[in-house]
Amino acid sequence: MTDVEIDAEIDLEENLTEQDQEEAEKVFAKKVEIIGGPPAGPATLEAKDACAWFGDRLVLEGVDLVMPKGQVTALIGPSGCGKSTFLRLLNRMHELIPGAALDGEILLDGEDIYATGTRAQQVRMRIGMVFQKPNPFPAMTIRENVLAALKLARLKCDDKDTLVEQSLTRAGLWKEVRDRLDSPGGALSGGQQQRLCIARSLAVHPNVLLMDEPCSALDPTSTRRVEETIDELRGEVTVVIVTHNMQQAQRVSDLCAFFLAAENQPGVVVEQGPTDVMFSTPTDSRTLDYVQGRFG
Amino acid sequence: MNVVPGTVLEDLPVAEDPPAPRERTRRIITEVPSRADRRFNQITMGAGISVLALLTLVGLFLMIQSSDALGETGIWTFLTRTEWRTDVTPARIGVLGLLAGTVLVAVVAVAIAVPLSVFSALAITEYSTAKRRKWLVGVVDLLAAVPSLLFGLWGFLFLSDKIVPISLWLSQNFGWIPLFKTSEDASLTGSIFIAGIVVALMVLPIITSVVREVFSQTPPGEKEAALALGGTRWGMIKTVVLPFGKGGIVGGSMLGLGRALGETIAVALLLPQVPQKISESIHILQNGGATVSGFIANRAGSDSFTTSGLLAAGLVLFVITLGTNMIASVVVSNSRSGAGVEI
Ligand SMILES: Nc1ncnc2c1ncn2[C@@H]1O[C@H](COP(=O)(O)OP(=O)(O)OP(=O)(O)O)[C@@H](O)[C@H]1O
Ligand SMILES: [Mg+2]
Questions:
Q1: Of A66, A49, A67, A48, whose CA–CA distance to A58 is shortest?
Q2: Is residue B18 part of a domain?
Q3: What is the pTM of this model?
Q4: How many structural domains is chain A composed of?
Q5: Do B244 and A139 lie within an 8 Å CB cutoff?
Q6: Where does the signal peptide begin and end (chain A) (predicted)?
Q7: What is the pLDDT of residues A74-90, one digit of tens each?
Q8: Closest Cα to atom 3, ligand 1: which residue?
Q9: Which residues pair with A50 in a beta bridge?
């Protein structure tokens, strides 16, 4: 676990000129419609008594958690307690693993995403995901990467250029790549690749964005950029982020859930609540120990 | 993470006054390998060199043995003449008719085998549970274990009759394509098409196993990314697996082509092995055609001049097959997916 102390003095806004700001405003003034895409706006995600198995092994038990619309929820906890598993339950990626099973309900704006007749592709289109390791499609160009979801989910869009610019701007990458949209996505630095992945997930205008340790492979500056992106997404998209970085959880999240698994026991949510409360006056002593870095 | 040239470095502080470069001596570091390493090195080098030597010896043998026929006929004439007649004096022999048949059979075989291989490889790597995967791999490998003589016999005694209606249908509906044109009274058995189908079955396992190997190396992160973006499994295959495996598909096909070019028994049994003009061979649905290897198998053991001519034809085949394989390995190792695949 790397706890990078980030100098709060780094202010990335300073290299955004006024002209850039104007440009960004102009591009966001245009409305891009994605035909067949998710309904507009953020959505509330709620887990009810969620459990997960790998084969015969129960790794997550009885998670009740509300991730309110437009807010940032951070999942914290020591390694192996089931945070990633929980995250993958939320957009039906869990079922891709052979032998994986689940119980309970995951409600997206009140509707169970595991209801019979609900297709996983539909769910995943509405609930985007950013992975720990940047995974752009290396042979595709930057532009194609951003538009990949349209092709994959067979959606139509009337103004692809604007969509590319909007998505890359929201991910804080536009300025760096505007002149080389046709170069391959693999030819970017790790931090840029991760932001490209964020742009790619945002392109379909998902209702929820899941992020599994999105900054753990990044340098402090890129980390800062990603955090800024998350901050800007507040209100537009519901964000659920797994992080091992306590400062990051404090900086970006509104709500926080602490996962913990006792030895050979499934992971559970020990405590959840507003981030400032969780970090200052949690009710459970284990939470306090964890957020203060005394174990985990 | 590898560093890609052209990567933009951001926010680097710019030094104001770079100090003048200092004179430096360059130390060249030479490592002295351990005894075990040296020994291993020698053994592997030895093995490598002996393979090369063997290859050279085969080439030399073919050249020396074929010099008789080539000298008398002339290399260029030999390469460009289609007929093969040893009953006239002087004998008129040439390899072009054989080459046309060889290439056509191989191309038909690969054209049929590649799509089948790609789909079986996908079925194995993407659409199977662990148990079914094992089972399917076993079946495909079993296909490789069938002696080619059996394939040939089966094609000759059984499959041939079953293919004739397909040939008929193709010629009736697509006869306007020269490839599928047949003359009125032509027999549809013993055709290059049928030989190609049988050879396709023989090269299927090797192509499938190369393609499968490459597909299974697709980075799981990219596959997950495609699925997480709302892609179907097939969409994921189209955006991630197939582009990644492109080099492997091309390389595997060429490797299969190399095999198909040299395939002997089946074509010796199935084709009349009478060299034809290219303009006749091209009508692959009708009876007729000869291939280098099949022809050699049929005519081996004749007089010394014929033998020399046959070896000359073998030399040509040797060069072509070697070239195909070399191109295949270059294609595979230059592709992103093939970097670690041995073919
Ligand atoms: N594919 C899998 N097959 C079997 N067991 C798995 C699999 N993935 C995870 N597990 C198990 O499930 C438990 C929870 O894993 P998970 O990846 O959710 O932890 P995590 O909280 O994300 O940990 P980390 O912080 O290290 O990423 C672990 O005990 C792990 O061993
Ligand atoms: Mg994890």
A1: A49
A2: no
A3: 0.82
A4: 1
A5: yes
A6: none
A7: 999 999 999 999 999 99
A8: A54
A9: A63
